[in-house]
């Protein structure tokens, strides 16, 4: 694909809710769709961050590992990076103010876009989860046993996506952000932060390519009507 106007998504967030964590797409195949993105690994194995074509996994102990061949994903978003500058950050922004600033500047609430911010942070707080054994628990149970990491005075990159609320379930309605420290000392799914300085870039998408794990029988046989997807996503995210 490699179209800068297109976002590629493998799987749905909803499939994670009942514990359909099996990795059905290889990292090699995922990277054929883009050089930037986020996701998770087989068995909900940590938090995935892809920058400049290099994939990093933040495991449940907070270690940042460069991902090699053999890594597979149940859910991920990637795209071909072609970010455009949005604004410089010259005053402190907490997570809520950051999101509001991006939305106020773009007015893109009804489309998919990626946001990338690099700079200095007063602190960054992230989370990750250890790889789960079969039979897999549900997403909320895993979130209740997550590991939380916090680092002060850190430089790094926030990378992630905004999805329209009408797509909540297929993706995370609103912002879904990951963080990676420049020195790889920490990272993961963003819980909270305060950005002091740096820059924010964005990339808008007019197309969404979504691939489903049709060869996975657990997915094909699952009845999602029995899952409270919206509630589970709210609790887990």
Automatic annotation (TrEMBL):
Coiled coil: none
Keywords (A to Z) from UniProt: Acetoin biosynthesis, Decarboxylase, Lyase
Pathway: Polyol metabolism; (R,R)-butane-2,3-diol biosynthesis; (R,R)-butane-2,3-diol from pyruvate: step 2/3
Name of the top EC class for this enzyme: lyase
Record has Lyase as a keyword: yes
SUPFAM superfamilies for the chain: AF0104/ALDC/Ptd012-like
Reaction(s) the record says it catalyses: (2S)-2-acetolactate + H(+) = (R)-acetoin + CO2
Cited CDD domains: acetolactate_decarboxylase
One Pfam entry name: AAL_decarboxy
EC number of the protein: 4.1.1.5
Protein family: Belongs to the alpha-acetolactate decarboxylase family.
Protein name: Alpha-acetolactate decarboxylase
Annotated organism of origin: Apilactobacillus apinorum
Taxonomic classification: Bacteria, Bacillati, Bacillota, Bacilli, Lactobacillales
């Amino acid at each position: 694909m490699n179209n800068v106007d297109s976002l590629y998504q493998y799987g749905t967030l909803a499939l994670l809710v009942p514990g359909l964590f099996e990795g059905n797409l290889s990292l090699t195949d995922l990277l054929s769709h883009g050089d930037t993105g986020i996701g998770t690994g087989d068995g909900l194995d940590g938090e995935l961050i892809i920058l400049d074509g290099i994939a990093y996994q933040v495991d449940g102990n907070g270690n940042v590992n460069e991902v090699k061949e053999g890594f597979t994903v149940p859910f991920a978003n990637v795209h071909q990076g072609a970010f455009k500058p949005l604004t410089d950050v010259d005053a402190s922004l907490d997570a809520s103010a950051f999101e509001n600033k991006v939305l106020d500047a773009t007015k893109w609430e009804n489309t998919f876009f990626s946001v990338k911010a690099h700079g200095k942070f007063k602190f960054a707080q992230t989370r990750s989860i250890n790889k789960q054994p079969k039979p897999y628990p549900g997403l909320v149970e895993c979130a209740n046993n997550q590991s939380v990491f916090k680092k002060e005075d850190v430089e790094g990159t926030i990378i992630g996506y905004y999805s329209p609320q009408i797509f909540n379930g297929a993706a995370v309605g609103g912002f879904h952000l990951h963080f990676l420290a420049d020195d790889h000392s920490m990272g993961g799914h963003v819980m909270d932060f305060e950005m002091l300085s740096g820059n924010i870039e964005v990339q808008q998408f007019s197309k969404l390519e979504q691939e489903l794990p049709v060869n996975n029988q657990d997915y094909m046989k699952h009845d999602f009507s029995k899952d409270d997807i919206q509630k589970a996503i709210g609790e887990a995210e």
